[in-house]
């Protein structure tokens, strides 16, 4: 997406005009204009020159944002609130010249004293009013320049309404002043006083001053909406200490290159993404992930720019610099999201496109109708001006983008990145969440869960001998055993005559004794396994764990159970989603038994076992027939399913935040961030609805009131009060959006269920099953190997593999020869004994 800075926009009608003009440029596939950030995002093959020309022809200014715009954003002041100081200056001068007019009104209404010169010369008093009003108009000339420029380009905007209202009041009053002067010259004092009562100089000045008050408040509030993005930009370090030629040198951050060696002392910000070469420390990553607890880092661990080194000295090698750092990508993502448009904004856009011309037409009709009804020109003009100045297209235009910006910034502060405004709006509407098991519900790394020594054997002895045997194994389960031994401080011994029997087990000798380890079937060939121990193993397997048996000289030493442990926060996250009315489905490539055990622990509503990445995509396709689906996965292996889902959520992204397949990126591996993202989306959408309701309600009531429709009920509206109402409407909308800054996205106490999703529809597909008897499978990893080989065959839709039963049940959607199935499994290293 190419981004542009747009100048000259004042309301939603302006942004709609720019969007329409750019969308007509050949090669532009999509265009979204943000009134909030005065920016435009354009996708397609159109040249920047053609896009800029289209904007300029529409009566506005445009310039392309440079490639390094965000890297230097904090330095150059991009997103700095420069508008509020300008508006404050304008407002101060306006009020200085406006106050004398208000004093004169006090003289008219309540007899406040005037200087003798004016007390006896009313013509001079009105001439002073005219000059004072001219001063206010000059100070606020931007309304007139922008308003009449828009009118000339046949694209009237909010400034057009203000300019027309103030100009009409000033023009009519000037005519009355000349008539008053003529009457005074003729000595007709009574007629001169009649003309004096018909003047609206103070109304013209008040309209401009009060609209400026509203614009100042709006500018301040709009500046606050980008606070989250600005705080991210401020995190970017300005300098880095690099080592060149053996000497430490402090250089500008832009001068750091990939593979540079840099050092970070305690208390300093890490300047760029890198990997630790030397040292260890606790690093505070809260700026990127929202996690306040520091993370321990040691040699070989990655570090990210803008995180804080809290304790130790670190020597690192730069891996990502400039716009490639994690921080820069987050800033890019939040900024790009602000430049996109949510679907709900289209309603306001359609209204804004015709709003200003419709208001001008209503004001003209109001003026004519009151004249026809016999009212004076002054009275009819006051009603028409009231219609012009009370109408507020700004509130409509700001209702959606301010909430999107604040919601997106809040998410980013907590490590939740919404890529577009669409993803922020749609995430809260999901009815079904599909969770990948490995790395999402579970940690993704096998861990020892149980150590069960046999009678007469200590836990330390079992671990010592088991780790000695597993030390030379390359199996993933072996690493889990070694990790537990290291945690317990158990010395790992060296074995001789080591043998790994694929799919069966391990043997070796230590101090003249024969050690063996492996599955139940294998250990039965080495030692006697009591029935009670076999029952224990069965219980462990039912819980989704893999029992490893170990023996010494034919005597059973015990069982060590290994499993991909469930994350501590997974059950809580699942409960929170269910309390929101969301059905939670777990997808895994594991066998049915293990999958159901994990599913029970997590508390999910449905378990779909035995599916590979391609199979997950098919499951998502089926779930989408039942409701809006969000898929949660690691963003790499799950890319097809993430893309197929209505909302793809990549969890545990860490430094890899730019995952193409995902719509939402979660920096941490916390599953509770998924309900938090849904909560943030729902709160933002609720805020947008409130803003749109206020904007439509305000204009629906305000315009008829200003036109005089309710005068028979005793309700009327002075143009000055109309201007005050207009100035406050946008401020109210923006202020309401700022309330999202106080939203607690991890507080589940206010969650409420949405309408229930559609009932599950079961699709009937003509399939055929074949069962293979396989020898040599020992653990879930063996199952995964066989499963992957079989499901890679064309015509095989799924394979359910069990190492306990030594079978693979293959589901076919097209004929596959038995010989092909057999050869595929045997090529994977496992003999097939039967096929039916």
Record keyword descriptors for this entry:
30 strands, 836 residues, elongated, alpha+beta, 6-stranded antiparallel β-sheet, 7-stranded mixed β-sheet, 31 helices
Q: How many distinct beta strands?
A: 30
Low-confidence stretches: 67-77, 757-766
Profile the largest sheet: 7 strands, mixed
Strand arrangement in the largest pleated sheet: 14-26-25-24-15-22-23
Radius of gyration, CA atoms, in whole angstroms: 36 Å
Helix content: 40-55%
Assembly state (oligomeric): single chain
Mean pLDDT: 84
Instruction: Report the sheet-strand fraction.
Output: 15-25%
Shape: elongated
Number of helical stretches of at least 4 residues: 31
CA distance, first residue to last residue: 55 Å
- Summing up helix and strand content along with how strands pair, one would put the structural category as alpha+beta
Describe the model.
Belongs to the cation transport ATPase (P-type) (TC 3.A.3) family. Type IB subfamily. It catalyses: Cu(+)(in) + ATP + H2O = Cu(+)(out) + ADP + phosphate + H(+). With 836 residues, the protein is an alpha+beta fold. Helices cover 49% and strands 20% of the residues. The strands form 6 sheets. Strands 14-26-25-24-15-22-23 form a 7-stranded mixed β-sheet, sandwiched between helices. Strands 6-5-7-13-8-11 form a 6-stranded antiparallel β-sheet, with no helix packed on it. A 6-stranded antiparallel β-sheet has the order 16-21-20-19-18-17, with helices on both faces. Strand 28 (796-802) and strand 29 (807-812) form a beta hairpin. The longest helix has 35 residues, at 673-707.
């Amino acid at each position: 997406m190419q981004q542009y800075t747009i100048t000259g926009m004042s309301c939603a009608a302006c942004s709609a005009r720019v969007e329409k003009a750019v969308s007509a440029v050949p090669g532009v596939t999509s265009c979204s204009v943000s009134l909030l950030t005065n920016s435009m995002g354009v996708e397609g093959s159109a040249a920047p020159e053609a896009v800029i020309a289209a904007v300029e022809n529409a009566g506005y200014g445009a310039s392309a944002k440079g490639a390094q715009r965000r890297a230097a954003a904090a330095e150059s002041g991009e997103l700095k609130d420069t508008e509020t100081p300008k508006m404050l200056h304008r407002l101060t001068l306006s009020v200085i010249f406006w106050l004398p007019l208000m004093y004169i009104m006090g003289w008219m209404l309540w007899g406040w004293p005037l200087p003798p010169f004016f007390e006896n010369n009313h013509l001079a008093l009105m001439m002073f009013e005219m000059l004072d009003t001219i001063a206010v108009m000059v100070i606020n000339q931007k309304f007139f320049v922008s308003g009449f420029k828009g009118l000339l380009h046949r694209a009237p905007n909010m400034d057009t309404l203000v300019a027309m209202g103030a100009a009409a009041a000033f023009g009519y009053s000037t005519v009355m002043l000349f008539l008053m002067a003529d009457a005074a010259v003729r000595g007709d004092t009574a007629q001169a006083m009649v003309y004096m009562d018909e003047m609206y100089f103070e109304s013209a000045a008040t309209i401009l001053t009060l609209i400026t008050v509203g614009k100042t408040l709006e500018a301040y509030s709009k500046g606050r909406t980008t606070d989250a993005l600005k705080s991210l930009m401020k995190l970017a370090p300005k300098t880095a200490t690099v080592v060149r030629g053996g000497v430490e040198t402090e250089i500008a951050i832009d001068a750091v290159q990939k593979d540079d060696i840099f050092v970070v002392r305690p208390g300093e910000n890490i300047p760029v993404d890198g990997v630790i070469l030397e040292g260890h420390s606790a690093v505070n990553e809260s700026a990127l992930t929202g996690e306040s607890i520091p993370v321990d880092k040691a040699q070989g661990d990655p570090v990210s720019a803008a995180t804080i080194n809290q304790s130790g000295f670190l020597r690192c090698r730069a891996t990502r610099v400039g716009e490639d750092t994690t921080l820069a990508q987050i800033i890019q993502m939040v900024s790009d999201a602000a430049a996109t448009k949510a679907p709900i904004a289209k309603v306001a856009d359609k209204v804004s496109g015709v709003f200003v011309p419709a208001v001008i037409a209503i004001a003209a009709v109001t003026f004519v109708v009151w004249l026809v009804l016999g009212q004076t020109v002054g009275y009819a003009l006051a009603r028409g001006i009231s219609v012009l100045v009370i109408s507020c297209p700004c509130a409509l235009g700001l209702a959606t983008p301010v909430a999107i910006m604040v919601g997106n910034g809040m998410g980013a502060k907590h490590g939740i990145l919404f890529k577009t405004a669409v993803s922020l709006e749609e995430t809260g509407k999901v009815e079904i969440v599909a969770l990948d098991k490995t790395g999402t519900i579970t940690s993704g790394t096998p861990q020892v869960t149980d150590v069960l020594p046999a009678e007469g054997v200590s836990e330390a002895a079992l671990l010592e001998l088991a780790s000695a045997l597993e030390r030379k194994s390359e199996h993933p389960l072996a690493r889990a055993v070694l990790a537990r031994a290291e945690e317990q401080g158990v010395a790992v011994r060296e074995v001789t005559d080591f043998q790994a029997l694929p799919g069966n087990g391990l043997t070796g000798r230590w101090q003249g004794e024969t050690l063996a380890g492996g599955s139940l079937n294998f250990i039965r060939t080495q030692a006697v396994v009591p029935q009670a121990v076999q029952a224990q193993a069965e219980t462990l397997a039912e819980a989704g764990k893999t029992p490893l048996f170990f023996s010494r000289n034919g005597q059973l030493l015990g069982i060590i159970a290994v499993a991909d442990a469930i994350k501590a926060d997974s059950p809580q996250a699942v409960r929170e989603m269910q309390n929101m009315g969301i059905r939670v489905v777990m997808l895994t490539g594991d066998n049915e038994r293990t999958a159901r055990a994990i599913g029970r622990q997590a508390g999910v509503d449905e378990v779909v076992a035995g599916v590979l990445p391609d199979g997950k995509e098919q499951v998502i396709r089926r779930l989408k027939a039942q409701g809006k689906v969000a898929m949660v996965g690691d963003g790499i292996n799950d890319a097809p399913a993430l893309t197929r889902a209505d909302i793809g959520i990549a969890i545990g992204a860490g430094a890899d935040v730019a995952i193409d397949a995902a719509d939402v990126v979660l920096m941490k591996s916390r599953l509770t961030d998924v309900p938090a993202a849904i909560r943030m989306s729902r709160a933002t959408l609720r805020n947008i609805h409130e803003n749109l309701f206020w904007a439509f309600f305000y204009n629906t009531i305000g315009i008829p009131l200003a036109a005089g429709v309710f005068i028979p009920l005793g309700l009327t509206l002075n143009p000055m009060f109309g201007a005050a109402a207009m100035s406050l409407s946008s401020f109210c909308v923006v202020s309401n959006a700022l309330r999202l800054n106080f939203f607690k996205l991890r507080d589940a106490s206010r969650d409420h269920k949405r309408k229930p999703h559609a009932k599950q529809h079961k699709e009937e597909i003509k399939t055929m099953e074949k069962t293979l008897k396989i020898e040599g499978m020992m653990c879930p990893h063996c199952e995964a190997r066989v499963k992957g080989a079989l499901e890679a065959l064309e015509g095989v839709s799924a394979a359910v593999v069990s190492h306990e039963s030594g079978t693979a049940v293959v589901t076919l959607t097209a004929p596959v020869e038995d010989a092909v199935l057999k050869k595929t499994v045997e090529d994977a290293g496992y003999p097939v004994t039967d096929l039916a």
